[in-house]
Amino acid sequence: MKVGVIFTKFMFLTWFDSNSWLLEIGGKRILIDPWLVGSLIFSNLDWLFKGSRSQNRPIPDNIDLILLSQGLEDHTHPPTLKLLDHNIKVVASPNAAKVVQQLGYTQVTTLAHGETFTLNNQVEIKAFPGSPIGPTLVENSYLLKELESDLTVYYEPHGYHSPEVKQAAPIDLVITPFIDMTLPLLGPIIKGQNSALEVVKSLQPQVIIPTAAGGDVTFEGLLMKFIQTKGSAEEFRSLLEKNNLATRVLEPKPGDRFELPLEKRALAI
User: Membrane-spanning regions, if any (predicted)?
Assistant: First the structure.
């Protein structure tokens, strides 16, 4: 006779605003898309777009891995990366890998779509297609798995979810935007509500957490006059309820380390 056994596995997360996360999983500390110091400016064009916060975030200690999803400055932020230890292992999209290699990082692994990297036999990271950047470049999203427990985390910071990720369902935690950001004529920069709803339906996560918006950040510049935003975490909760989806929505506070318990189900005889 097979009996369902439920046990709880814990992980820790810290959100540093925007798309910057510290994920503690499998006994490892993984820093994702870090922007911790200075302003966020694309191609030195501060008149076009500039992100600022009231104070810098502290540089986390004992980082085992830096994980970079895209090569643009809001994911591969040069002022932050210059301050971090260049001997820390880096896993990056091909575009992001070029940036950190130019900065002098010594242990850089480039992951193309479908490729995997294993950190100390404890955490497996698999790259999937993520956000399109221009007409030809598609950056990375990531599936992280704690090998001892099979605890899984899926991260896609712009809401572009590849159908290939469905093969990994069900996922324990999804980190992706809830808010839509659109430029007239050019289309969506970030796909939020509907994209997040579809990924909940396909991946069946226990918990979903927003990224890419909110926090202690102010944005200015010419581009902000044209960007249109829509959606909120509360609206997304309502959307889940209307679709009879049990996934929990959590909203972390910037800088706060929090513990996330997740149930794992196994079968025993």
Answer: none
Q: What is the pLDDT of residues 26-66, one digit of tens each?
A: 999 999 999 999 887 788 877 777 778 888 888 999 999 99
- What are the two backbone dihedrals, phi and then psi, of residue 222, each rounded to the nearest 5 degrees? -60, -40
Give the residue-averaged pLDDT of 228-243. 92
Spatial CB neighbours of 225, under 8 Å, sequence gap ≥ 6: none
Question: Domain spans of the chain?
Answer: 3-268
Decide the pairing of beta strands 151-155 and 137-146.
antiparallel
pTM, full prediction: 0.92
Q: Reply yes or no on domain 3-268 having CATH 3.60.15.10.
A: yes
Residue with tokens 């935007």: 177
The candidate with the shortest Cα–Cα distance to 213, out of 177, 243, 237, is 177
Cα separation, 144 vs 190, whole angstroms: 22
Phi and psi at residue 110, to the nearest 5°: -90, 125
